[in-house]
Amino acid sequence: MIKRIESAQNSRVKQWKKLHTKKEREKTGLFLIEGRHLVEEALKYKTVVKEIIVREGEEFSAINIGEANVTEVTKEVMKLLTDTETPQGIIAVCEMPKPCKIELSSSPLRLLLIDNVQDPGNLGTMIRTSDAVGIDAVILGDGCVDLYNGKTIRSTQGSLFHIPIIKGNLTTWIDELTRENIKVFGTALDNARDYKEVPSQQQRFALLVGNEGNGVNRELLKMTDENIYIPIFGEAESLNVSIATGILLYHLRG
Amino acid sequence: MIKRIESAQNSRVKQWKKLHTKKEREKTGLFLIEGRHLVEEALKYKTVVKEIIVREGEEFSAINIGEANVTEVTKEVMKLLTDTETPQGIIAVCEMPKPCKIELSSSPLRLLLIDNVQDPGNLGTMIRTSDAVGIDAVILGDGCVDLYNGKTIRSTQGSLFHIPIIKGNLTTWIDELTRENIKVFGTALDNARDYKEVPSQQQRFALLVGNEGNGVNRELLKMTDENIYIPIFGEAESLNVSIATGILLYHLRG
User: Which chain B residues touch A130 with a CB distance below 8 Å?
Assistant: First the structure.
């Protein structure tokens, strides 16, 4: 039987609403996703979906919800729970995946290391691009915007459910990748090589990209095998970090 | 002498504020830009800057303002004029550039044709990328989000002042480019060729990209010389249009 909530004062509504804060997400290990496409992707890729919240009058019988609880809410309650301007009428409460181990001896093995990217749209788009190009895991270093921010999740277009995304210390990661003979390419504007000179179709590599304004932390750049750049032919000072990531990943993957 | 405005009711303040609407921008041929970097870029690249509005206490003597009028306003007035969360204390009223003619017989000649892109962040980033890769002009077809939307302008990072951006009918454009023997590449998912099979380092080409959800209009795709796609190796359904544009432009430019 489907439960129904009509009151904005309901304690479960208040609890769900709190999941819009990073603090509450980290405390509970839960996060919200919104919209039919994301909910379907979460269910399809075996993310643990704890609850599904549907706006009254919404048709969702085509979604295979498995064992998730479904609660119907009024339009007013749904408005409290959404952080989008045009809510799609369906929200799910999901469990953050457990940290997973990446087998560093495998081949091919392709990783993206992200240092201190601040914009949720950029982070989400970089995850979507990583998924498209067949990256095996994305490593989020210190200072990155929260993966479970609503805007980040929307920008991934569901790719956060397709590939492992791991929080980690990038110094430790680069050390370990180097020990495993995985080539680490940093991105930098000086002391760097035109990316087109670097061979395409690499089987085992990690690309390291960084902050929108300041690029990759200089200490990390000293640890890489090689640093590369994308030439600027016009008057722009730089490329957006998610664009640069797309160009470089497609080049390295080949 | 610098004028000063303290009242939110001042008629000039009301007039400036109206420039946040597309209707008023089109009526007056004026638009707002915000932040030191954009104002400097506008001045440097000979955009007509009609007025500069500075928040009281802001230091801007390092900016070469030329002949623009400067008005100082209170913090409260500045808040009314900004559409960002953390205003930078300087806004300029600029004149939209006059339509310019592109010499289609020149070589190299590289163009980006944009069909119906809706997201201001995507459009702005595509203009920034076009600038970086040395595109000669960007053609905005029907249905594109407004170039002078605040979010679009911010995402260009000033590149809208660096290269010609022309509104036009894409059917007419493709016809004319074809007559001039400029190769037009459409982007499509079916009946298309892997972009890596298309030679890099093209001297005269136009790339045609399209809407976030629906891609390029099918009638336009029928008119191109060739349609190309970027392979998806993972589980993502597609790439973000601005990412795809970056990968393809850097490939074609070579």
Answer: 234
Cβ–Cβ gap A129/B237 under 8 Å: no
**How deeply is A133 buried, as exposed, middle or buried, from its count of CB atoms within 10 A (0-12, 13-18, 19+)?**
buried
CATH T-level topology, domain A3-95: 60s Ribosomal Protein L30; Chain: A; (3.30.1330)
Q: Which candidate, A234, A224, A46, places its Cα nearest to that of B45?
A: A234
pLDDT tens profile A101-135: 999 999 999 999 999 999 999 999 999 999 999 99
Q: Which residue has the higher pLDDT, A156 or B45?
A: A156
Residues of chain B contacting A132 with CB distance shorter than 8 Å:
230, 232-234, 236, 238-239
Both structure tokens of B167: 């509104």
- Report CB contact under 8 Å: B240, A125: yes
Identify the residue among B197, B250, B253 best suited for mutation to test binding to A, counting A beta carbons within 10 A and taking the highest. B250
The pLDDT tens digits of the residues spanning A162-179 come to: 999 999 999 999 999 999
Task: Tell me which DSSP letter residue B97 carries.
Answer: P
User: Are the beta carbons of A134 and B163 separated by less than 8 Å?
Assistant: no
**Domain A109-253, what fold?**
Alpha/beta knot (3.40.1280)
How many cross-chain Cβ pairs, A to B, lie less than 8 Å apart?
107
Burial class (CB in 10 A: 0-12, 13-18, 19+), B23: exposed
| pTM of the shown model | 0.96
Of B155, B237, B243, the CB nearest to A246: B243
Residue-wise pLDDT tens digits, A18-56: 999 999 999 999 999 999 999 999 999 888 899 999 999
B113's enclosing H/E stretch is strand B109-114
Distance to chain A for B147, nearest Cα, Å: 17
Q: Which among B132, B235, B254 is the nearest to A239, CB-wise?
A: B132
CATH 3.30.1330.30-classified regions of chain B: 3-95
Give the Cα separation of A176 and B251 in Å (integer). 33
Residue range(s) of every CATH 3.40.1280.10 domain in chain A: 109-253
